[in-house]
Amino acid sequence: MTIAPVEHTARVAAEELVYGYLNRAALLGESGQVDRTDVDVAMRLGCRLPAGPFETLDGIGLGVAVKALDALYERTGQAAHRPADALRRHAVDGVDRYPAQAARRASGQEAQARPIERIGVLGSGTMARGIAEVTAAAGIPTTLVARSTPKAVAAVEAIGISLAKAVARGKNTDEGRTLALGRIAVADDVAALSTCDLVIEAIVEDLAVKRAGFAALGRVCRPGAVLATTTSSLSVSACAEAAGRREDVLGLHFFNPAPVMRLVEVVRTQWTGAGVLATADALCARLGRTGVPCGDTAGFIVNYLLFPYLNEAVKMLDRGEVDPAELDAAVEAEYGYPMGPFALLDAVGLDVSLAIQRRLHEEYGDADLAPAASLSRLVAEGRLGRKTGSGFRAGEPS
Questions:
Q1: I want to staple 66 with a disulfide (CB 3.0 to 4.6 A). Which of 71, 91, 362, 393 is the partner?
Q2: Beta-strand relationship, 249-254 and 263-268
Q3: Would the pTM count as exceeding 0.85?
């Protein structure tokens, strides 16, 4: 049997991965929950891609894309390569650009935004610190509540270091750093959030813990305060139910590192009030962020599209089809992505990636979404990527 050269194998694997991702985007478009423009913006900002999936499909041409997917499906037999019904329908109709979806999301654009004079952040980890830095730097007094006074103090110290780095990069000034730090108050009691107009929960990605946090916020926060969760994949609706004020709750999924990443997924539930959505839109603009609306489905937009692509790359490794460095190089060279899948997994953190992949598998029940064996194994071994210096590629000689 003739074995294809490694370079060709890497290019073929890259094609399988990227076309699977594009097809999944078309399936998401079929749902009517999101608009193609919102998806493109989310993927460009959230993953720093040169183009969103629908922009990419437009560039390829829908007829060409369907033919490529048909060929891939015949070769691989993977459901990910079976062209989405809408994609095939548009191609058959001779449409070469993917049309905008007819169904648009509920919006708060015509409602009155609630005034925000003080923001609360519940948590003291990486995301909580990053969000508090962003809100304080934008001129908004911010109260950060941690589990203990030492954790709260450590959080402010970390924010100070981050702001100093921004000054060194020319992104802030010494005066701006001082003013931002002066806007941050800290506490170790959730009651300190009672005067906040909007509270952003940024605690551990565990639904039971988040629900307990929202139950506490529901008790102490003033009537009319907006309550938001930064969850990347858990149910926003479950948090809303725990708060006891469902219309006031939504998701504000900031991306890490929050001071750098400009995307915020604005996640509505079936109960989120129009005024709450308007408030979220106004806040994103005030923070210099781009808010992209989406429904409360596992993975929202970015993780729904990104992690099946990453997980399939690991399954290719498990099947002995690819070398991580070679596949990364092929994806970067052929499609202009800033990072290949294995480098990106190491950057995100394999533990975080595994948790999101498990959530997607749990929610959708698709066997293809089951976490890849190597991903689970490396996490069990404590090899979590860049944060531990060992992962799929972390620790390689530079």
A1: 91
A2: antiparallel
A3: yes
Give the distance between the most distant pair of CA atoms in the chain: 72
> Do residue 305 and residue 291 come from a single domain?
no
In which band, very low, low, confident or very high, does the pLDDT at 102 lie, cut at 50, 70 and 90? very low
Classify the phi-psi angles of 185: left when phi > 0, otherwise alpha if psi is within -120 to 50, otherwise beta.
beta
Residue 216 lies in a domain: yes
Q: Which residue range forms the structural domain that includes residue 37?
A: 6-101+301-380
User: Do 195 and 262 have their domain in common?
Assistant: yes
What's 202's DSSP letter? -
Q: Same domain, yes or no, for 131 and 263?
A: yes
φ and ψ at residue 109, rounded to 5 degrees: -65, -30
Same domain, 283 and 309: no
Torsion over CA: 283, 288, 289, 290 (sign):
positive
The residues that are catalytic are 232, 253, 265, 303
Give dist(CA 126, CA 143) in Å, integer.
16
What per-residue confidence (pLDDT) applies to 259? Answer: 96
Which residues, at least 6 apart from 313, have a Cβ–Cβ distance to it below 8 Å? 13, 17, 322, 327, 340, 341, 342, 345
Which of 73-82, 90-99, 254-263, 320-329 bottoms out in mean pLDDT, i.e. has the lowest? 90-99
Residues 276 and 325 both lie in one domain: no
